[in-house]
Write a structure and sequence with these properties.
The complex is a heterodimer of chains A (850) and B (246). Chain A has 850 residues and is an alpha+beta fold. Chain A contains 25 helices and 22 strands. In chain A, strands 1, 3, 4, 5, 6, 7, 8, 9, 11 and 12 form a 10-stranded mixed beta sheet that branches. In chain A, strands 13, 14, 15, 16, 17, 18, 19, 20, 21 and 22 form a 10-stranded mixed beta sheet that branches. In chain A, strand 14 and strand 15 form a beta hairpin. In chain A, helix 23 runs antiparallel to helix 24. The longest helix of chain A has 44 residues. Chain B is an alpha/beta fold and 246 residues long. Chain B has a single domain, classed as P-loop containing nucleotide triphosphate hydrolases (Rossmann fold, 3-Layer(aba) Sandwich). Chain B is globular. The chains are: A alpha+beta (850), B alpha/beta (246). At the A-B interface, helix 13, helix 22, helix 23 and helix 25 of A face helix 2, helix 3 and helix 5 of B. Bound molecules: adenosine-5'-triphosphate and magnesium ion (MG).
Chain lengths: 850, 246
């Protein structure tokens, strides 16, 4: 063993550059696994807080059994309960407003008869709920007689930031100054007035008392964990308190589960990539050292000794690399959390402490680092032991027996690919993650056999670029020389990249669609919103005269309305939305999944429908079909001319048709939702006043400014998605390093050849271009496989998103284009250092290099 | 006219306590068409001299002129072009590219020069056929014997029609018969095609193929002799080495 260890140490010491590179690979693998798993839980918590915050979702809310208020110290009893992320105690009291308190006009019905006074500890409240201030600022502890209210309430009270209003309370009227404005409320809720807790306690005469504790628990607790936490809360508080669970809606959970699946897939990918970087390096080490090993064997070293040398070397490197990797991984986690903290804290009060080092994770990472390194060394070591002494005397072998090595792997890989493809098509979500991993493994197995054909396919393109330099062919043959290594590098590094690109593309197009939908549904200048959006049938609408009056207001350019009707087709309930085919696209619009703007024209001309995704799923119809709708005078045929959706009707089985048809066949003339746009040059204030006075006659509507609402929603959405993008970027970097590593090793390995090319007259440029051409080829092959993997994951994503958003799977053209561009770009980027290194080799040194 | 002339050529490796003077003030002139053998004990600086003349390395002091042009201050690209067009190298270890066939290897300098592959292969084939390798054109290096590989390397050295061939122990790795073949080949090249050949060797028998032998010792030229084909066989050269060694 002594000989092995000392030989190993010598090799490591003498080949400093390569040792550095290999160790770097190990460091990186460990760093990735350790760092990712340290950051991920924190990121998940942040993501959850974001989503929950935006939606105002609370996990548990605690009240006294009597319904009365209780001492605020009670909240302290929760200090020792594990698993709570945020706790906020508040005092909530409804304040009834005297008649005509707002408008001081007995003739008009009051739109606002009560408000909710909410006293909070400002930072605590912000950790359970997001308050996206659109104007002014959020509450501060030192504020007295200050309030934060919504835009809707501010409009009703006619106050702006800095102005005050008075509110009746236990101790008479209290003047409150508005310090911040929240987005308008679309849903019919009692308006809230947010003040500091002492302020509310004073106004209601309930000193040191609260009546509600809101709790959010740790990220993605499963059902069992939730129950456990609830139990602990109940024990801590005693019998007098009840714990209400406001279980988040199914959609919320679906979205979160999806997020968790996504992050786990990325974690697994990171692990996979780290392992392969190491494996790769050891393979090259053995290939490179065939001559040395042959010589050792010739001198009488046994096979065991040879295996021992390689393994001792991997063990040494594994230990060193893991140790450094742990330290760097921790620092990276720290850095990422620091970076993320900034943007997130603007939005939600989320205290991300230093990353927690879990001893188990440390053990796991070191075990994995050393384990994978030794394991990765095992196969090469075994191969090394089978090198014959003869090989010491031969020039380096050009080709390892490709066919024999790839034959079985190819067949097994193909089988795995076929099976996993069926798995994903079956839609069994439990099988999707393991299926994904097997799919990747299958790709890796198939790749070696495909390297030659692919190199031949892409080779001509690359040599066409480099032919004038006479080195294109060389790059190609260099790749073909080690198909297995190319396969591993290409698939391991690019798969990660392409998956990220595909997923990133998907997420970005999702946000794009949501944004477009939001803009269409809420982006008009003013909206008249009925008490219940989505459940149109329960609303009292307005006669067409109201819309007509609005149209006639000076400065109003266009008014578009929804009319609602209900019908059935084949016994299935369908919600009908009547639109004005001319005005609607100018003010709002549908997002078309099939068909385009021209569908509006068709709506105007005949009995035609535009249906949404939910409709397609429920009715099992497609564009072009004709369906029978039940009307007051029997069934009538309607043709489906397009598939499109808007945000308000996304989840209900909905068909859009012209208001004229809705009137003829279903007898509906009532408007239930009104959107209007102002003319460019309109005097906004004047128009606003007039609209307000018209609106007063229709108290069933809430009037909100769409532009403000849309702006607030968009800020929240952008903040929520920024976390996702940070994870993507973070995962893309390893691909780059893996490729750089491989290229550098391949330059090192060919030092002598490069020296020779230089000696017989190859210029530095030609040598550099040779490495670049090789990198491009590698990237092209890798991207090819990466896209396959990316499409698989994309399909998984869409399947998951369908719960929320019936989009249907579309071939991700833009994702693929981006993957190709980024893949080739990464190839070039990874080649920069190795190419420079190759070009700068001292010729004489290189010729002596062994 | 001398195709090569060196002036006080010195090469020192390392610095401080570990400096090694590989070459010390070498003044050497080689005439066009001459076949020169460089001999001397191991470590005396033969390879270093060849590397300097071939522009693979830079001297510490002194100057080298090839066809009257100094190459010591030449920028790298110009030097590379010179190597590609005017100089052909043959190394002891064959230094063929393992992934290329014999003809591709032999054609490399002209391919690198931007000549169309088809034309380049034609030129390489011509030389390979002359060296009796016409039937091994598409063999890869690991399918060729040591002597065959070395002949491919010589074909590669000649394919660009260089005026100067530099060979560092070209026979060091092959058997006696192949060694004789290769030395004879180099002599033919020098005589038939009027090329200047400088060859480093340890073997007196091989050196005997040359027109002139330069003896190096401790980085200095200690002796040199012109060989007369009739009077100087391998035995005579061996005698000479013995004398210098003393
Ligand atoms: N890169 C280097 N660094 C330090 N010393 C060197 C280096 N290259 C060569 N030398 C030294 O320079 C001297 C001349 O070396 P060179 O390779 O020219 O010898 P040689 O005559 O070719 O020997 P051989 O017949 O064994 O090939 C030797 O003493 C060698 O140790
Ligand atoms: Mg030498």
């Amino acid at each position: 063993m002594k000989l092995q260890l000392s030989l190993a140490a010598r090799y490591l010491g003498r080949r400093k550059l390569r040792t550095t590179l290999t160790t770097l690979a190990i460091i990186f693998g460990v760093l990735l696994i350790f760092g990712m798993n340290t950051v991920l839980p924190t990121m998940i918590a942040a993501l959850q807080a974001n989503v929950q915050g935006v939606e105002g979702q609370i996990d548990f809310s605690i009240t006294n059994i009597s319904g009365e208020s209780f001492p605020q110290e009670i909240a302290n009893r929760l200090q020792n309960v594990a698993g709570l992320r945020a706790v906020s105690a508040s005092l909530n009291r409804t304040i009834n407003l005297p008649a005509d308190y707002i408008d001081r006009d007995p003739a008009r019905p009051d739109t606002l008869i009560a408000v909710n006074l909410v006293g909070v500890t400002s930072e605590d409240a912000r950790s359970v709920r997001a308050y996206a201030i659109i104007e002014g600022r959020y509450l501060e502890d030192s504020d007295t007689a200050s309030a934060v209210i919504s835009q809707t309430l501010a409009d009703a009270l006619s106050v702006k930031v800095g102005e005050s209003f008075s509110l009746p309370g236990a101790s008479g009227l209290t003047e409150l100054t508005v310090v911040g404005i929240l987005p308008p409320n679309i849903m019919p809720i009692t308006e809230e007035i947010l003040v500091n807790l002492p302020q509310a306690q004073e106004m209601t005469g309930e000193t040191d008392r609260v009546n509600l504790i809101d709790i959010n628990i740790e990220g993605f607790a499963d059902e069992a964990r939730r129950n456990e936490i609830q139990q602990q809360i109940e024990t801590a508080l005693g019998k007098n308190y009840q714990v209400g669970t406001l279980t988040a809606g199914d959609e919320m959970f679906a979205a979160m589960e999806l997020g968790q699946i996504g992050l786990s897939v990325f974690g697994a990918l990171a692990l996979f990539m780290g392992g392969f970087i190491i494996f790769n390096t050891f393979r090259t080490i053995v290939t490179e050292r065939r001559r040395d090993i042959g010589m050792l064997r010739a001198l009488g070293a046994t096979r065991r000794t040879v295996i021992g040398i390689i393994l001792a070397e991997s063990l040494l490197q594994g230990l060193i690399g893991s140790a450094i990797g742990l330290i760097l991984g921790y620092l990276m986690a720290l850095g990422i959390i620091k970076i993320v903290q900034g943007p997130l804290s603007l939005f939600i009060n989320l205290k991300l402490g230093a990353p927690v080092i879990s001893p188990l994770l440390v053990l796991f990472s070191v075990g994995l680092g050393v384990g994978v390194t030794v394991l990765a060394g095992l196969l090469p070591a075994w191969n090394a032991s089978r090198i014959t002494p003869l090989e010491a005397l031969r020039p380096s072998q050009a080709e390892i027996d490709v066919k024999r090595k790839t034959g079985i792997g190819f067949i097994v890989g193909m089988l795995i690919l076929i099976v996993t493809t069926f798995v994903v098509l079956s839609g069994q979500s439990a099988l999707i993650i393991p299926g994904g991993l097997f799919f990747l493994a299958g790709l890796v197995l198939v790749t070696p056999a495909l390297v030659n054909p692919l190199a031949n396919l892409f080779g001509p393109i690359i040599s066409w670029i480099t032919v004038r330099q006479g080195i294109g062919g060389l790059a190609k043959s260099n790749l073909k020389r080690q198909p297995a290594r190319v396969a591993v590098t290409a698939s391991a590094s690019m798969l990660g990249l392409a998956v990220i690109v595909a997923a990133g593309g998907l997420v970005s197009s999702m946000t794009g669609i949501i944004d477009e939908l939001m803009l269409a549904s809420f982006g008009s200048d003013y909206l008249f919103v009925p008490p219940s959006v989505m459940l149109w049938g329960s609303n009292i609408g307005s006669s067409p005269e109201f819309a007509q009056d609005l149209r006639e207001v000076e400065g109003v350019e266009e008014v578009s309305t929804f009319r609602y009707g209900a019908t059935t087709t084949n016994g299935q309930a369908v919600s009908l939305i009547g639109i004005d085919p001319e005005a609607f696209p100018n003010v709002s619009g549908l997002h078309f999944l099939k068909g385009n703007q021209s569908a509006y024209k068709k709506l105007a001309s005949k009995r035609t429908l535009v249906v949404n995704g939910a409709f397609l799923l429920a009715i099992d119809a497609k564009a072009g079909d004709t369906i029978e709708l039940q009307t007051t005078n029997g069934t009538v045929s309607y043709e489906i001319v397009a598939v499109g959706m808007d945000l308000l009707n996304a989840k209900v089985t909905t068909a859009y048709l012209s208001q004229a048809n809705l009137e003829t066949d279903f007898g509906v003339t009532e408007d239930v939702f009104i959107q209007l746009n102002l003319a460019e040059d309109a005097s906004r204030e004047a128009v606003k006043t007039e609209i307000w006075s018209l609106a007063a006659n229709y108290p069933q509507y809430k009037l909100i400014s769409g532009t403000d609402y849309y702006g607030a929603m968009k800020t929240q959405m952008d903040a929520a998605f920024s976390a996702v993008y940070i994870v993507f970027v973070f995962l893309a970097i390893p691909s780059l390093i893996a490729m750089m590593n491989t290229l550098t090793i391949s330059v090192l390995e060919r030092t002598r050849e490069i020296g020779m090319v230089r000696a017989v007259g190859g210029t530095r440029r030609q040598v550099r271009n040779m490495v670049l051409a090789e990198a491009l080829l590698l990237a092209a092959i890798g991207t090819f496989f990466g896209i396959l993997g990316g499409m698989y994951l994309g399909y998984v994503f869409v399947t998951g998103i369908k719960v929320l958003f019936p989009l249907g799977y579309y071939f991700p053209v833009s994702g693929i284009t981006t993957a190709v561009i980024i893949g080739l770009f990464f190839g070039l980027l990874a080649a920069i250092i190795p190419a420079r290194q190759a070009a700068r080799l001292e010729i004489v040194q290189a010729l002596r290099y062994e | 006219m001398s195709i090569i002339s060196t002036e006080n050529l010195s090469k020192v490796y390392g610095s401080g306590a570990t400096t090694v003077t590989a070459l010390e003030k070498i003044n050497l002139k080689v005439n066009s068409g001459q076949f020169v053998a460089v001999m001397g004990p191991s470590g005396c600086g033969k390879s270093t001299l060849l590397h300097l003349i071939g522009g693979l390395d830079k001297p510490t002091e002194g100057d080298i002129k090839i066809e009257g042009v100094s190459i010591t201050q030449m920028p790298d690209d110009q030097l590379t072009e010179l190597r590609r067009r005017k100089i052909g190298f043959v190394f002891q270890f064959f230094n063929l590219i393992p992934v290329m066939t014999a003809v591709e290897n032999a054609a490399l300098p002209v391919t690198l020069d931007g000549i169309k592959p088809a034309d380049a292969y034609k030129r390489a084939t011509k030389w390979l056929e002359r060296f009796e390798l016409g039937d091994r054109l598409s063999s890869r290096p690991d399918q060729l014997s040591g002597g065959q590989q070395q002949r491919v390397a010589i074909a590669r050295a000649l394919v660009a029609d260089p005026t100067l061939i530099l060979a560092d122990e070209p026979t060091g790795n092959v058997d006696t018969r192949s060694g004789d073949e290769i030395a004879g080949l180099l002599r033919d090249v020098s005589k038939q095609y009027d090329r200047t050949v400088i060859m480093v060797t340890h073997d007196p028998r091989i050196a005997a193929y040359a027109d002139r032998i330069v003896f190096l010792k401790d980085g200095k030229v200690v002796d040199e002799t012109l060989l007369d084909r009739k009077n100087h066989g391998a035995a005579a050269v061996t005698r000479m080495i013995k004398e210098i060694g003393d």
